[in-house]
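Reviewers of the previous submission asked for a worked example of the structure-prediction workflow described in the proposal, so we include one complete record here. The input consisted solely of the amino acid sequence. No template or homolog information was supplied to the procedure at any stage.
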Amino acid sequence: MELTEQLLSAYRNARYCVYPDNGFGPQKFPEVINIVLGDQNKQMSRLLAQYHLTQGAIVTACNPQSQILSEQQNSLRQEQLIKYIQSLNYPFLGALNRDPENIWPDEPAVLVLGIDSASAMLLAKTFDQHAFVQISQKNNELVLVK
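From that input alone, the workflow returned the following structure tokens.
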């Protein structure tokens, strides 16, 4: 699907939810850290600091190029993404991309801890995505895949 202004708006308005207590790390956080683009998130800053990191990225393998796939197809793609991230030795946490208007289905995603923007760009491109969310201790921004 072409990256239209309407689609960009959906990306910008989405809620990116990170689940820090999925058996990977410390349990000093609430069940969900909700990321809003452009906002500094103190919980996310604390999470990154706890891992002695300054950045990460939220990436999904679901619905490539914004083409809606079946739940089964998306699950398979997400499993492939997780295996790929594991092969790169990045720690990660579970995440979910949510459309507050419920036009788009929820998309399972991952927060890849410590990944830089260039590597996240390659990861998103590998899984045929239009964009990913770059996370830092100061800001969270939508990055379009080139």
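Residues 23-27 have pLDDT under 50 and may be disordered. We consider this example representative of the routine output the project will generate in years two and three.
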